[in-house]
Amino acid sequence: MKDTEDLPNNPSRTIKPLSFRNIEMADSSSNNYLFVDDEIEGNRFLRNFKKKFVDFYAKQQTKNNIVEFVLSLGEYIFNRVKVFFVLVSVLFDILFESFNVKKNTWATKMFWGRGSFLSSALKVLFVGVIFIVSITYLYRKPVVKASADDQLESIGVAQTDLLVMNSTVNTVIPKDRPRRYSEEYVVKRGDTVANIAQMYNISVKTILWANEMRNANALKLGQTLVIPPRDGVVVTVKKGDTVEKLAKKYSADPADIVDHNWLESPFTLAVDTELFIPSGSIPEPLKPVIAAAPVSLNRTQSSIGYTSVPVDPSVGKFLGWPVGGPSRISRGFFPGHYGIDIYPTGGQPSVVAAAPGTVISAGWGSGRYSGFGYYVHVDHGNGYTTLYAHMAKLYVGAGTPVGQGQALGQIGATGVAFGVHVHFELRRGADLGGRINPAPYMH
Do the beta carbons of residue 174 and residue 429 sit within 8 Å? Predict the structure, then answer.
């Protein structure tokens, strides 16, 4: 029976189904495979692993094909995933190629085309240029802010040729700075003109003149009085008035009027505006007008009454005469005028350094130097500085070392000045609050 079953032509024998895998295994000894896919480089690791696994279980002569099924399934999935990624890469190539074509077409139309796109782009560019030019013009146009005369304390402009020392962006107002404008005072019970005058450190006549009062005892409770900033006369400018005429009429100094009211050349006075005449006086009608004492032409400190002022013993009298030619002192040092004015008596001499030092600031006055015109500020290295103002031109700049008697500039009348002169100041340090009378320090 056994022999019969072993016959190859026995029709009763069940033939095991033949698969491609069996053919592959049967032909493995000669390395001739039916499927050339297994020769692909990417499948080498999986093929070797599968082959070893199948060989191992074949040697065990087992009929369990689960391992073979799992390996075949994994290989199938791997191949399909690989095909998917290939398709995706092809799709992206197509998309990128389409994008490049569109991009080239768009660039060609933009730069070389004659269509509406180039025209629109040029229009946008033209509008942008017009907008930028318009904005630039508006920002370059000066902005003017109107201010009432009783509100304007200082005007700040760009400062030139300035060596900054302990500078600050804040405006420094000295504590001893006097008022520049009139105030109003309401009379209370018990007030007298004399008490009010003493309170404001002015004379009784100044209050009477400002309020057109003839009798100092005619005060009324609740009455409003105008209090001038210092001794002088408050006037209303009339047609034909000039600084010289008002100064002569009220026995005042024209330079004081110019300085206090911040008048600039040519000193034109607007009709019906209020003007304060410092140190002016209204002559009494029943008394003869007494002329003011003439100003001494001597340049000694005794001529301006400061011989008794003590001098800093650490520096002594170290200042020389600040004008290099014949000149005289016109105005001395007092609250509201923190220096001395020296007028030339012949020609137009140079302004010279009163002591050796270094120029710390020079140029056109602005900020804390407002109203000085062309000025020079010199540090003498001993804790004191000198300032020379209203010059017509400058010969030195910031940082220039100077010797005593060296020319700093030409005497003039720039800034808030009346007549050709030099305004000469002495300061402890460089601040406005340190201004002192220079006369006692001059030899």
Answer: no
Q: Check residue 164 and report its DSSP letter.
A: -
Residues 105-133 have pLDDT tens digits of 777 766 655 556 667 777 888 888 888 88
Closest CA to 332 of 170, 442, 207: 442
For residue 286, the 8-state DSSP code is T
- Let me know the angle formed at the C-alpha of 415 by 412 and 420, rounded to the nearest 5 degrees: 25
What is the enclosing helix (H) or strand (E) of 242? none
Q: How far apart are CA 364 and CA 157, in angstroms?
A: 10
* Six token digits for residue 162: 């300035």
Distance CA 179, CA 165 (A): 28
| Pairwise CA distance, residues 27 & 60, whole Å | 19
CATH topology of domain 314-441: Glucose Permease (Domain IIA) (2.70.70)
- Helix, strand, coil: what percent of the chain each, to 5? 35, 20, 50
Whether 322 has a pLDDT exceeding 80, the answer reads yes
Of 170, 167, 155, give the one whose Cα is nearest residue 370: 155
Domain locations in the chain?
18-112, 115-143, 183-278, 314-441
Q: What does pTM read for this prediction?
A: 0.43
Do the first three CATH levels of 183-278 and 314-441 match, i.e. the same topology?
no
Q: Which residues pair with 211 in a beta bridge?
A: none
Hey, what are 435's tokens? Answer: 């201004």
Domain 183-278 has CATH 3.10.350.10: yes
Rounded distance between C-alpha atoms, residue 46 and residue 74, angstroms: 9
* C-beta of residue 209 within 8 angstroms of C-beta of residue 182: no
Distance, in Å, from the CA atom of 303 to the CA atom of 296, rounded to the nearest integer, reads 6
